[in-house]
């Protein structure tokens, strides 16, 4: 997902093209696809898993939240581990651990076992993602080839979520929901074989040290935040436990920032997030995924629960989103980014995604796919595709080599924590409003099924309004905070950051 600017004197000597570099991209892309699609592949299978394991509506989001929270909460740690022990070694360890966790999840006999396996998947994904980005950066050193490689990688990162929904539908329809987890064993096995033969390692940094207090404070604060938001739906926002979690999160994250200012080897050097271009990109990424993950959750239940779609048909119905994201990322943003300021792609992209959500707010219990869902998906996907690549490129442009891993991890953290909070927060909004609607409108018990269906859709559309407002906020922040100039390809052998990269602060 990210582009690194490695600025060491030894890099010029390593600019000899790796003859296997495009095969290496296939291996790294497969690993990235596995990580990204696993955030959504169980979305389509979730109704089946919920019935099989007896999950409550209030707890079902933990199948997604456990993964995204562990992934997002531990990414900064994963980036530092890769710096310390080496990228290829961390990459392989992450792949093997991810495969084992997936096997445990597929064999889960209870909801608790599935939640735990998903959290374990997220933890190993947090090791896998930063090391994959570093390997990609050191494999592609020619500016033109780097642009193509990161364009492909960005398309995978953006469309992987929707691809996961399709794959989840196929596996659930023809095999079983458990295969949405078992399939990762195959993916990881292929990636391990490819990594052993095609990827070249880069030595770890001896001076790198783990910031243990930073890990405890940062990860603890993020976990408390998402857990507090998820518990607000069943308990209420004024519940003592919810307030305690949210206040505890604020305290831990505040202490984290204070500690990072004085730590000798901070987990997250504050100069990375103080730069206005990177800060704007991190915020835009987080807000985009906050809305995206919530919309995927709602659309899945709308298509299966209201329209009566099968899991396979649900997955196929998501295809336009994947195509639109790939089109926006590779054919629009990748071509225009060297010529226009990044914010002129980010902000309009977020606005288009918000327009797609506006269409979804008009859903009824009898809305058709062609008139409502298809136009919304095309607008939503194309907008996200246009926004994702400049966000990632701007966030990671001009970063010193010793900070490249943690910067990449911060981009991924914004994405995964945004998705985790979005799933929990928007699910809270939807279920609360549905409950209120049914309570206020159920007059005749014979009309219960109709009223409940209407209430569910009303809850979905209300939550979509919230998601749309989040997208609009992201557009505003991108337009105001991101002041970088067009990112021109650097001349061969240049070591200085491109104009406008990482500046503007």
Automatic annotation (TrEMBL):
UniProt superkingdom: Bacteria
Pfam family name, one: MFS_1
Recorded GO MF terms: transmembrane transporter activity
One Gene Ontology cellular component annotation held by this UniProt entry: plasma membrane
Listed Gene3D superfamilies: MFS general substrate transporter like domains, Multidrug resistance protein D
Keyword set includes Oxidoreductase: no
Domain Major facilitator superfamily (MFS) profile per the UniProt entry, residue ranges: 24-486
Location relative to the cell: Cell membrane
UniProt cross-references to InterPro entries, sorted A to Z: EmrB-like (IPR004638), MFS (IPR011701), MFS_dom (IPR020846), MFS_trans_sf (IPR036259), Sugar_transporter_CS (IPR005829)
Record key words, sorted: Antibiotic resistance, Cell membrane, Membrane, Transmembrane, Transmembrane helix, Transport
Membrane topology: Multi-pass membrane protein
CDD domains: MFS_MMR_MDR_like
Record protein name field: MFS transporter
Organism: Streptomyces reniochalinae
